[in-house]
Amino acid sequence: MKLITAIIRPFKLDDVREALAQVGVSGLTVTEVKGFGRQKGHTELYRGAEYAVDFLPKLKIEAALSDALVDAAIEAITNAARTEKVGDGKIFVHDLTQVVRIRTGELDDSAL
Which residues contact 10 (CB under 8 A, 6 or more apart)? Predict the structure, then answer.
């Protein structure tokens, strides 16, 4: 089992959600986050004054998956979130040692 964490641009959420649904991902957690990477933020003008925006708004998507879905999910996220510009985001894959469904007590793959 794996936990996929993807940091994407906010306007790409619907595209990513639909792409993941097509490959069989049944649940997601989405969190609004701020950060920067190579994009390094930008400056904005507001009422004639220039402001530095160091942390850019992003979305963090998390999905716990069986090993069989991981490659398809990564490809779906990559294709749906890509704009080919700096700041498209990253995907991180973590090992899950145990998953428990609280309602039923099911464990691991059956809990997903």
Answer: 32, 57, 58, 59
Work out the number of other CB atoms within 10 angstroms of the CB of residue 36: 14
Stated pTM of the model? 0.84
Q: Which tokens is 29 given?
A: 């957690």
Give yes or no for a contact between 43 and 63, defined as CB atoms under 8 angstroms apart.
no
List the structure tokens of 97: 């040692």
Per-residue pLDDT of 49-69, as tens digits, reads: 777 777 889 999 999 999 999
How many Å apart are CA 107 and CA 6, to the nearest integer?
24
Give the domains, in start order, of the chain with CATH numbers.
2-111 (3.30.70.120)
Paired tokens of 21: 């649904």
